[in-house]
Amino acid sequence: MLGIDVFNEPHNLFWFSENGDQPAWVDVIAAAASAVYQNNPDLLLFVEGPSSEEAGPAICIPHGQIPEDISAYSIDRNACGNGLDAIHFKSNWGENFRALLDADAAKNSEFKLGGELRSQLLKRLPVEMVNWLLGQPDDSSHNGSHLVFSPHIYGSHVATWQSSPEASPYRFNWNFGFLQDSNYSVVIGETGYLTDQVLDVSFFKDSISPYLIKKNMNHQLFYWTFNSNSGDTGGIRENANTAALVVDKERALHDLFYYKQSSN
């Protein structure tokens, strides 16, 4: 076993506060981290984002910089002042890490990781456990981290909406890409499509794959699922009675996983 996913698609939880009778997501992460650290500290802890409805800090982007896409986000014109628009991003289950953004940077159009997660974990765990999970605070490479951020991303057949190829990089950067930029491990925990769902196929090939390639994340993906019994995606295998793979999916994943960045 390589790692443990703390909880699948915790869509009713908020990062740092209770939501009705649901605990804060950071409390669940801390409990899981403590158990893993004490029993098998070689394991990785996969953490998804919680409720897609949790807004996170204000995100301000210069007017006209982000393309129109009402399916993926809303834009409040000049709501931030000084020619800046407030952007309210949507997210799939497990995709929303916006609460971890640096709030001051977000107001200045910069997506980067803040210190709230470490601060909140230190209130719940001994410092050695937090450093095991997040890496040493003075190590920007986070090589000692045992945490993997794991968003789920689907097209409109599963999620009922999807972002355009033009808007997807903005959505992905602000929802989770900033974690990759901070040298944390980010692995797409679930994605996939049925081959007869044209929009979903195009979303994978025109939005997800190019983004992962550009961010040098093209090996950091789990396809849901290998077997053919997923009603959402049909899986990679043609059916339960054969080892043959769905040709279109095999080709798309081969091209993604084996993509070589240009030396230029």
UniProtKB/TrEMBL annotation:
The keyword Hydrolase applies. Pfam families: Cellulase (PF00150). It is an enzyme of class 3 (hydrolase). Residues 2-229 form the Glycoside hydrolase family domain. Its EC number is 3.2.1.4. The keyword Hydrolase applies. One of its GO terms (biological process) is cellulose catabolic process. It catalyses: Endohydrolysis of (1->4)-beta-D-glucosidic linkages in cellulose, lichenin and cereal beta-D-glucans. GO terms for molecular function: cellulase activity. Keywords: Carbohydrate metabolism, Cellulose degradation, Glycosidase, Hydrolase, Polysaccharide degradation. Belongs to the glycosyl hydrolase 5 (cellulase A) family. This is cellulase.
